[in-house]
Amino acid sequence: GLFVTDYFTRTPRKLSPFRSFASIELFHFHIPEDTVIAVWNLITFKEQGGTFGDQCPDRSITVYFRSGAPSVINPLHTHFPRDTAVPGSFALTLTWTLPNRTTGVFNVTSPLPGDWFLAAHLPKDEGKISVKGLYEECQYLFQPQLIVQRLVNIAVLYPGHVTEQSMAPHNRSCLYKVFVPSYTSRVLVEVLRCRGAEGCPLWLRVRAKAPPLHNSTTLDCREHTPCQLAQDLPFWQHWYYVLVEKHPGVPGTVSFQVTVQLTDCSRPSLARPPFLPSSASMNMPHSFGSAGGLALGDSPPPTSPNDTKHPVPIPVTSHAGERCWPVRPTLRNELDTFSVHFYIFFGPNVSVPPDRPAVFVINLLPVLDSGGVLNLELRLNVSSLRGENVTVFGCLNHEVPLTSSDNTSVTCETESLAGFLLSVNATASLTRLRIPYPQTGSWYLSLRSLCATEHGFEPCTNVTAEVYLRAYLSPCINDCGIYGQCKLLRTNNYLYAACECKAGWNGWGCTDNAEAFSYGFQLLSTLLLCLSNVMFVPPVAIAVRSHYLLEAAVYIFTMFFSTFYHACDQPGIVVFCIMEYDVLQFCDFLGSLMSVWVTVIAMARLQPIVKQASVLYLLGAMLLSMALQMDRHGLWNLLGPSLFALGIMAVAWTARTIRRRHCYPPTWKRWAFYLCPGALIAAAAVLLYAFVETEENYFYIHSIWHLLIAGSVGFLLPPRAKPSRRLGPLPRRKGCGYQLCVNEQEELGLVDPAVASINSICTS
């Protein structure tokens, strides 16, 4: 055949340590039909400060692969919520081969066509809270690339038609495909008139959706005559691939004929006509009442008592597994993203007769519905049983309904199908099933009522069970409960939802309480973070006593909003919010930075004309508000204003030192008992905040931060200026009709401007 190679790539993304599915990076690919091999090239490299991160530690990267929907992963081995089905996926761990780069390759032979999803993450870290911009962070970037090789012009087999083929000596196989429409109960592939050097040295392989593999359904034509291979309960609306492979070492040319028969389950005694128009046999699903379909009023054929199923080929006759029942559609009602209800016509109460199953179909749209959770709920109306020991079994299968005729063992699985089994009876009248990230397409629910006896389950007589059926699509399981938040995430044009848990709760639905915080612990952490702000009361009292009223107002503002911000910021249920969270956070950050600003400006003891105008206070408030609006967690939001204020203070102190010819402040007691202890306390607070704080110790380390910062303000705030009894004149500056006298004591901050008398102003 002719091969075509396609290449797909994705933009590199930064990986994060795993905490929940919300912290992973998801990549979406689409594999075309007739693909014989898909190769993923997984590229990972390190970066630090815009350059290659050769000094970054090696951290393993886990990549998950799944077809049809995102992978449901559980690297932390937490518990899933009850009644949750966990679909499987394949995981691959990448190790580093170079200091700053590594690659991995993942090959899939004959992959299923359609959507494929890759999920990648780093291992869980210790949860350290780092200050943004304090140091260059190591970044791990991941970029997947996909190379597919697909066959073109694959021969199509038409049901009932014979295709002749001659396999040359240099050829080993021939590949065909046939489309299986809805309401098909059996696919029968037969090799006829096989002639070769050693009889019929051929293998016959059949597989749905993709070319066959070595472990696909296989038949050796040398051991079976006629060479027929049957597939019961095939997938509807899909291609089936037929591979005729020659035995190795067989010389010469092998000629044969291939034919396919599709059995219509609505009329099991009849095969589909040899040829149907392309609209009927290739693309169009059969509607109720149309040719080849089953109308709601049709009666099912009788069951033969000796019906059996065999994997070996058998004639196209009536079999229990070949009949189908009316499929009742559901009405799709979209309420919001991943919020879809499927309503049953004349429901939600459905009747399950004793002689035949009730079959329903739920259609999930491609790509749009695979990022949520498919929920199914069955509730049995016990009063409808009339005292009989009735059990209603439900089978949920993907792409084909499954109704077993075996009453002794009720199962929803066959050799090629896997489904989910539900059951309700008088004792357990309610059952639920949740499927996170379901595969899209048609899901079929088959309900069947059986009566329990001493010899197992038997068909009931004259008892029609009534079942309440509810099917819906939701973003998360139970909206993640009270200890989680359901987040809507996006990767390129694909949307999906995931839970982000808090207060130590884990799991897919935030239901695993193995590491959960107790109510007492939550209350203690909230009280510590809130009541530690009471430490601002002494600085407020000192500021009021020293006539620093503006500074006292800022400290009160900080104390108030810090208290209520931390009361609203708690992860558990001990939460109290008086305003919106964003408003409280902004006011808390602004109050903290303004406290540092006004304290340092007060220590500078600037000229009275500057201080009375409050130019620097107003300028600081405006600049800090702008900086916080740009980035509230940046390092320079804290360091920038602090360094600028310290620079102003240093200039003022240096000017006074030069003018007075000795150090300012002049007394050693001020340095030993106030400035040095206050500076050390503030430095200790900054070190705790920047290097020690983690998610586990946040509640008490941050409380200590509150205590230290408030305590340092009490030490650093300058005392009230004392009045001087003698007002000595300094060099005069001539004004308009007056001589303005400047008091040296007042300039040095030793005189309260409020007590300056009229004597300090001299008339000319």
Which descriptors would you attach to this protein?
cell membrane, Jelly Rolls, transmembrane, elongated, six-stranded mixed beta sheet, disordered C terminus, alpha+beta, 764 residues
Structure description:
- This protein has four domains: 2-152, Jelly Rolls (Sandwich); 155-264, Sandwich (Jelly Rolls); 327-475, GOLD domain (Jelly Rolls); 519-716, Rhopdopsin 7-helix transmembrane proteins (Up-down Bundle).
- It is 22% helix and 32% strand.
- The chain has eleven helices and 36 strands.
- Helix 2 packs antiparallel against helix 4 (549-568), helix 5 packs antiparallel against helix 7 and helix 5 packs parallel to helix 8.
**Are there runs of 5+ residues with pLDDT below 50, and where?**
274-322, 724-728, 744-764
Overall number of structural domains:
4
Which class of secondary structure composition applies to the elements?
alpha+beta
Under CATH, the topology of the largest domain is which?
Rhopdopsin 7-helix transmembrane proteins
Instruction: Bin the helical content.
Output: 10-25%
Tell me the overall shape. elongated
TL;DR of this structure?
The protein has 764 residues and is an alpha+beta fold. 22% of the residues lie in helices and 32% in strands. Keywords: Cell membrane, Membrane, Transmembrane, Transmembrane helix.
